[in-house]
Amino acid sequence: MIYLILYDIFIVYLGKFIIYNFMEKSFFAQPLPEKAEQKEVLVTPSIRLEFFRHSKQGPQTEGMQEYQRRLTEDGRAMATEAGKTREPNPEMGLVYGSPRERSQETAYRQILANQEEVKSDSSLEDIEELIKNELPVGQKKIIDERLNFNWDGSQKFNEVSMKHFTETKDTLKFLVEESDDLVVEAKDKVSSSYSRCAANTAEIIQKYLKILPNWEKAVQLDNNREEQDKKDYAKNNNELQRFLGSHGATVENFILKLIDKTEGREAVLKFIENLPDKNNFQFNDGYSVCLHNENNNPKIEVTYHDLAWSIEPKLLDEFINDSKDLTNKIEKS
Asked: Within a domain: residue 164?
């Protein structure tokens, strides 16, 4: 059964009233109930965010808008297989996508990779109908523009970025070395440059850092309930999951800036050089961000294949401020 896919559902301690989406809006802010004894939470509550590029998409056919492009048959299978490697748990999961439907379809297929109800030929509509039948209330998906890309903020940015993508095929290097300066030069407040994309991802992570204490309270509440009333978060390792489908030359920027900030520009260029494709990640490729508290200190663990980083929350602020600085430069120019 697909229970909690696409919205957060909890029961208020003093009743059985269901509140959906509370984690997204931080509704659950009441203090823990006082009890003579608190049961120990054995598994540290955590939130895992999976960011990845969409799977293989089909062409834009006549009469189709670009955002309507869907996955090919191979792309569906690839997304499902990639999802299995990420240990998805739809009972504790929520899906994000950009407004482009291929990102949504990929995120659905990854988090539902182990669900027999999702067939190899199931369309995006089929999957949404399946979820609708399981969940009579709640959101089916969350569309977040921060997972999207836009190269049309100015003619100059579009021309230069497309040249790097189609001719020199070194888009990631262009993003790191030139894109921020280019948006300032073109007075472009829209296009998806290096710092803007990295900041978008940082904002999403920062949002879940703020949610983490509420999740810890929910886990503790559940731990103190009578057995017949438990939601059994512990059986799911007390881990919330978020599967976030994005795009090439978009999702990569957070990792690139992380390396840039912590190891230097030479290291990030070497990272790009070692990628199979210098334009973007491969289909379904991405990274994990795990959030938890250790001795009341928030921890952010980022992993990409065999690489791992432990970063401080203040680094997210740096990413976000870098993007704000671009806007300030444009407004002053």
From this structure: no
Task: Please report which confidence band the pLDDT of residue 148 belongs to, taking 50, 70 and 90 as the band edges.
Answer: very high
240-269 mean pLDDT: 98
In a domain, 328, yes or no: yes
Which residues constitute the domain of residue 81? 9-27+42-148+191-332
From the number of C-beta atoms within 10 Å of its C-beta (0-12, 13-18, 19+), residue 294 rates as: exposed
Q: 104 with 44: CB under 8 angstroms?
A: no
Give 3-state DSSP helix, strand, coil % of the chain, rounded to 5: 45, 15, 40
Residue at token pair 């290096």 = 194
In a domain, 226, yes or no: yes
Other Cβ atoms less than 10 A from the Cβ of 249: the count is 24
Residue 58 has pLDDT above 70, yes or no: yes
Cα–Cα distance between 126 and 19 in angstroms, integer? Answer: 26
Please indicate, yes or no, if residue 103 is contained in any of the structural domains: yes
Packing angle, helices 252-263 and 265-273, rounded to 10: 140
Q: What is the model's pTM?
A: 0.89
Question: How many domains is the chain built from?
Answer: 1
Give the tens place of pLDDT for each residue, 151-193.
999 999 999 999 999 999 999 999 999 999 999 999 999 999 9
Residue 315: CB partners within 8 Å, gap ≥ 6? Answer: 258, 261, 262
Q: What is the CATH number of the domain that holds 129?
A: 3.40.50.1240
